[in-house]
Every structure is written in structure tokens, then in C-alpha cells.
């Protein structure tokens, strides 16, 4: 009754489309799905971290196999740690998405991890999957974009390839604030084209714990 309320971080109307697209083809992209004010706050938080050299060069591989490969990926990251209200709002929205995915798809997702990613001009991320089939504790990937504006000639698009024909491009996503992508982590090849501007995103993964050879896969 006349009270100011915060709009939902993730447009509720997008959820049914997202679930349908994941089931039908394994990937979803929507524009204006993340709240504009929230994207702005997260963008400021990430650029402040970048300005203070508080980001870590991103590597590939897990655990003891983790290595830096600038020829494969050139972003710098910071894991979300719930430190700001903006992060907590974003993570709460991902909690809602997790519930929707579990109800519709019986995926048994139980945890979400995410990092800010900052790609300086010239950086890219070569074509990859986010997890390997059969070892998939990362089940569903999310990417939320934070950049207030993104001219058509700025590069830095995320290219999505068909799950069943990994050479066939099916979408090219401009990293514009509000745009949200979601896809099956072990099925959908994707890459980040070289960017000409500093590029800000949040990449995240819904996880299911996989037990491998009697060992439970560690959290990171
Ligand atoms: C990733 C990734 C895509 C993007 O971090 O694994 O594919 O558009 N990111 O930032
Ligand atoms: Mn990826």
C-alpha cells in the first residue's frame, strides 16, 4: 500500500520461456531480463574491483590442473562473496531460478557459484564447454551482462553453437546490460569473441555434487 518495493532482479515473465528453451534446445538468451538498476550496481562494483587491481587472472582446469592460458582465455575474475546488497539480490534471483529449474526439470541442482568477469580490450575466451559429460557437477551455466551500452562494432559477443552440431553457430549475444543467457553446461559449446572495450559479465553455474571414484568433487 504505497510502499516502495524493489523490482524483481530477474523478470518473472522470462522464467517460463527460459525453462521451455532449455528443454527444447538446451539454451536460452533473453534481453532486459536482469533489472537495470541492479546491473548498474553490479557494474560499478566490478569496475571498482578492476580499478583497484582486485581481480585475479582466470585460468582453466580445476584443482591441481588449474593453469593460466592467455591464449585460451583473457578475463580477470572475482568470485561473488555476498559482500554487497547487489550481489545478494543477484544471488537471491538465482535461487529462484534454481527452484524453477528443479521443479520443471528435476535436475536436483543444489548450489550456485558465480564470478564477476572483466575482459580487457583484446581479451577473448575460445570455444569451450563448461563441464565434461559424465563428470558434470556443473549442470546449468548462466551469464548475466552488465555493460551499460555496447556499440555494434565493439566485438565481445558470446557465440553459442548447436549442442548436436558444434560447428553451427546458433546465436551471437551482445553483452548488453540486462541480457541473460542460460544453457546446459556439458552440451552447449560457446566462446567469447575478442572484445574492443572493457567487458563486464557474471558467469555462474548451478551444481550437483558428483562423486568420482569415491571422492566427492570439491567445491572449486
Ligand atoms: C565462462 C564463459 C561467457 C561470457 O566464463 O565460462 O563462457 O560471455 N563466459 O562471459
Ligand atoms: Mn563458459
Topology:
Layout: H1 14-25, E1 27-30, H2 36-51, E2 56-57, E3 76-79, H3 85-105, E4 111-119, E5 125-128, E6 138-145, E7 158-162, E8 165-173, E9 180-184, E10 190-192, E11 199-207, E12 211-212, E13 215-216
Antiparallel strand pairs: 1-9, 2-3, 3-4, 4-11, 5-10, 6-9, 6-11, 7-8, 7-10, 12-13
The protein binds N-oxalylglycine and manganese (II) ion.
N-oxalylglycine is lined by residues 117, 125, 130, 143, 158, 190, 192, 201, 203.
Cα distance spanning the termini: 44 Å
Inertia-based shape: globular
The helix count comes to 3
Strand order of the largest sheet: 1-9-6-11-4-3-2
Helix content: 10-25%
Structural class from helices and strands?
alpha+beta
Which whole number gives the mean pLDDT?
Answer: 91
Largest β sheet strand count, sense and barrel closure? 7 strands, antiparallel
Question: Can you identify the CATH class?
Answer: Mainly Beta
Low-confidence parts: none
Gyration radius from CA atoms, angstroms: 17 Å
Oligomer: single chain
CATH fold-level name:
Jelly Rolls
* Small molecules in complex: N-oxalylglycine, manganese (II) ion
The CATH superfamily appears as q2cbj1_9rhob like domain
Can you count the beta strands? Answer: 13
Order of helices and strands: HEHEEHEEEEEEEEEE
CATH architecture: Sandwich
Amino acid at each position: 500500500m504505497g510502499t516502495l518495493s524493489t523490482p524483481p532482479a530477474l523478470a518473472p515473465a522470462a522464467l517460463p520461456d527460459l525453462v521451455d528453451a532449455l528443454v527444447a534446445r538446451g539454451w536460452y538468451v533473453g534481453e532486459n531480463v536482469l533489472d537495470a538498476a541492479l546491473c548498474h550496481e553490479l557494474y560499478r562494483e566490478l569496475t571498482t574491483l578492476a580499478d583497484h587491481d582486485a581481480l585475479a587472472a582466470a585460468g582453466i582446469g580445476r584443482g591441481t590442473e588449474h593453469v593460466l592460458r592467455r591464449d585460451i582465455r583473457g578475463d580477470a575474475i572475482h568470485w561473488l562473496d555476498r559482500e554487497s546488497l547487489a550481489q545478494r539480490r543477484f544471488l537471491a534471483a538465482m535461487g529462484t531460478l534454481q527452484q524453477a529449474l528443479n521443479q520443471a526439470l528435476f535436475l536436483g541442482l543444489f548450489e550456485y557459484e558465480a564470478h564477476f568477469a572483466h575482459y580487457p580490450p583484446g581479451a577473448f575466451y575460445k570455444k569451450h564447454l563448461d563441464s565434461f559429460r559424465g563428470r558434470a557437477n556443473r549442470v546449468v551455466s548462466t551469464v548475466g551482462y552488465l555493460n551499460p551500452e555496447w556499440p555494434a562494432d565493439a566485438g565481445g559477443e558470446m557465440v553459442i553453437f548447436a549442442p548436436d552440431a558444434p560447428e553451427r553457430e546458433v546465436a551471437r549475444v551482445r553483452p548488453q546490460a540486462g541480457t541473460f543467457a542460460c544453457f546446459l553446461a556439458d552440451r552447449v559449446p560457446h566462446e567469447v569473441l575478442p572484445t574492443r572495450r572493457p567487458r563486464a559479465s557474471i558467469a555462474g553455474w548451478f551444481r550437483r555434487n558428483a562423486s568420482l571414484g569415491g571422492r566427492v568433487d570439491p567445491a572449486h
